[in-house]
Design goal:
alpha+beta, two-stranded antiparallel ribbon, 14 strands, 13 helices
């Protein structure tokens, strides 16, 4: 078990279809392993063609109080949150309020300054806008402030000609899409837009900007010292990765009210694996779940079409991107048996994806931050077990 648990003994709850027993076995092993990679608390869920076939949770939401992980516990999902921003943007494309091939400045005039007039809506979704690092000097904590980040985006030139290079828009992705969406949907920012147009119709317990009541359900995040933001930023200050993190608070432990209540679409979404699996399960079915259609299959088809492939200059690994998502690119991003599978990997091991070839939606979210790039030891093991089970289900 993870040494943080001490004398505590984690319990596993939920249900698992017999066809996916290997997933339940891996989930149990994630807590039983006798090393520092063991989980503290986590949740895993799988949707197969609209059916919730795996819904598991276990361990502890807070070690200090021995608070067990509950069915409705929320946890930071880090960059899996970007899937929400992409889906919300595609909703507006579906409604005809945004055109993928229109300049962003058509909807957001101030955006076009400093050489950005040629950036298209699809460039934002495809991480090809060249705005992964911003020009203005940002203070620690500025990434939590919507107006500050929007102003910094407006005052920044692209790092290279728009559309020519994909690069992970680490902290800017959510503000780029969030402000664009707000400009055409009555000024609704991400929290309200998500709540009204996606979470409510799909029954997703996934949020930007937690309320006081929701804060009472949030799991504490634990991390080894090497996973601290300060350690991540103690690198070459001129590297594109460090520059992409400008405005972060080096002391952030992902438990602060600022983090939990920010509408930072790039990472501060809080939910659980059940919500992830429901969203990705809906997307894997062409945009429909429980008789409710939220996206047309035509618009959603963009999510499976590769827009770029190569070594990402921010992340330093090979990545494939589509219009809104990361695409399956083993070994770092294994998302399904099909190369059309899409989703997002989050910091520390959070992971969610859709595989339209088998109508599969997967979600995993722990509260212990694992080191390294990719879905982490257990996200990887669980996703592989899920993929194998779905192939024979």
């Amino acid at each position: 078990m993870n040494p943080l648990l001490g004398a505590l003994r984690p319990e596993i709850h939920g249900h698992c279809d017999a066809r996916f027993q290997a997933v339940a076995d891996q989930f149990e092993q994630a807590f039983a392993t006798a090393d520092k990679d063991g989980e503290v608390g986590a949740t895993c869920a799988v949707m197969l063609d609209g059916e919730l076939v795996v819904d598991l949770w276990g361990g502890f939401a807070a070690v200090e109080t021995a608070a067990p992980w509950q069915q409705d516990t929320l946890v930071s999902c880090w960059s899996v949150s970007k899937a929400l921003c992409a889906t919300l943007t595609l909703l507006l494309v579906d409604e005809g309020k945004l055109d993928l091939d229109a300049p962003v400045a058509r909807y957001w005039p101030a955006f076009g300054a400093h050489g950005k007039a040629g950036i298209l809506v699809r460039h934002l979704l495809e991480q090809r806008a060249g705005l992964c690092a911003l020009a203005p000097a940002l203070k620690p904590g500025d990434v939590y402030d919507w107006d500050t980040m929007v102003a910094a985006i407006q005052d920044s030139p692209p790092l290279w000609p728009p559309g020519t290079q994909a690069a992970y828009h680490n902290l800017t992705y959510g503000y780029l899409l969030g402000e664009l969406c707000a400009r055409v949907n009555g000024g609704r920012r991400l929290g309200r837009f998500l709540r009204e147009d996606l979470a409510k119709p799909l029954n997703l317990d996934w949020h930007f900007g937690l309320t006081d009541a929701q804060l009472d359900r949030v799991a504490t995040v634990y991390r080894p010292d090497q996973a601290s933001l300060a350690a991540a930023l103690d690198l070459d200050p001129d590297s594109l990765f460090v520059r992409s993190m400008q405005g972060s608070d080096p002391e952030e432990d992902y438990n602060s009210p600022a983090w939990r209540q920010a509408e930072m679409g790039s990472g501060s979404g809080h939910g659980n694996a059940r919500a992830m699996a429901r969203l990705f399960g809906c997307l894997a079915r062409g945009g429909e779940l429980d008789g409710r259609r939220v996206l047309s299959a035509r618009t959603l088809a963009n999510a499976s079409v590769q827009s770029s492939r190569g070594v990402d200059p921010v992340m330093g690994i090979e990545m494939r991107y589509s219009t809104g998502f990361e695409l399956a690119c083993p070994p770092v991003t294994p998302m399904g048996p099909s190369d059309q599978a899409f989703g997002y990997i989050g910091a520390g091991g959070a992971f969610g994806f859709a595989d339209p070839s088998v109508k599969l939606g997967f979600g995993y979210s722990p509260n212990f931050m694992h080191l390294g790039v990719g879905p982490g030891r257990w996200g990887l093991a669980l996703s592989r077990a899920t993929i194998d089970a779905a192939a024979t289900a």
